[in-house]
From TrEMBL:
This is Large ribosomal subunit protein uL4. Part of the 50S ribosomal subunit. Coiled coil: none annotated. One of its GO terms (molecular function) is structural constituent of ribosome.
Length: 205
């Protein structure tokens, strides 16, 4: 399939052929959901922690005698039933991540790219280059009508372009190896450079 290529100033720069096996799939929500869930779970810190009854600072002395009080039997004030006692089966430091095969992760990225193509939210630009001025780039982005956009470049992002884009709200810039399902779906517009298209097609073959 062919798609027109534009420049950042809005001018035309020819067209590019996109592979049907990457950009022409029928998007499946279940695949995208599984990959996004895998990404977000791996990003979760898992540093939540509470103290159990063996960790709270209390004496282990028996608080009152076993029999004859008319109350329940207790051994220590650190029991979960008491205020200030340990927490029973509370959260502990752990990883929330789970496994997902490379083949499935690659398939998820293909479906994310296809979803953007099907929705008409995919734009191809000639190159992501700038003179390093944020104001100039911000005006170009505004003129193109991109409010929440992700720009994916080739193996490396142009340093001046990255610096210019850094302070523009709603604009993210990633190298091709950083392309992921969550960031692609999060933004309204996906912008690929020619180099980015080549790198993604080589990565997803």
């Amino acid at each position: 399939m062919k798609l027109d290529v534009i420049k950042l100033d809005g001018g035309k720069a020819g067209s590019v052929d996109l592979g049907e096996d990457i950009f022409g799939l029928e998007p499946r929500a279940d695949i995208l959901h599984r990959v996004v869930r895998w990404q977000r779970n791996n990003a979760q810190a898992g540093t939540h922690k509470v103290k159990t009854r063996s960790e709270v600072s209390y004496s282990t002395k028996k608080i009152y005698r076993q029999k004859g009080t008319g109350g329940a039997r207790h051994g220590a004030r650190s029991a979960p039933i008491f205020r200030g006692g340990g927490v029973y089966k509370g959260p502990v430091v752990r990883s929330h991540g789970h496994e997902l095969t490379k083949k499935f992760r690659k398939l998820g990225l293909k479906h994310a790219l296809s979803a953007k193509m099907a929705a008409g939210e995919l734009v191809i630009i000639d190159a992501a280059s700038s003179n390093g001025k944020t104001a100039v780039l911000a005006k170009q982005i505004k003129d193109l009508g991109w409010k929440r956009a992700l720009i994916i470049d080739g193996a490396e992002v142009n340093t001046e372009f990255a610096n210019a884009a850094r302070n523009i709200e709603g604009l993210d810039v990633l190298p091709s190896m950083g392309a992921n399902v969550y960031d692609i779906l999060k933004r309204d517009t996906l912008v690929l450079t020619k180099a980015g298209v080549e790198a993604l097609e080589a990565r997803l073959k």
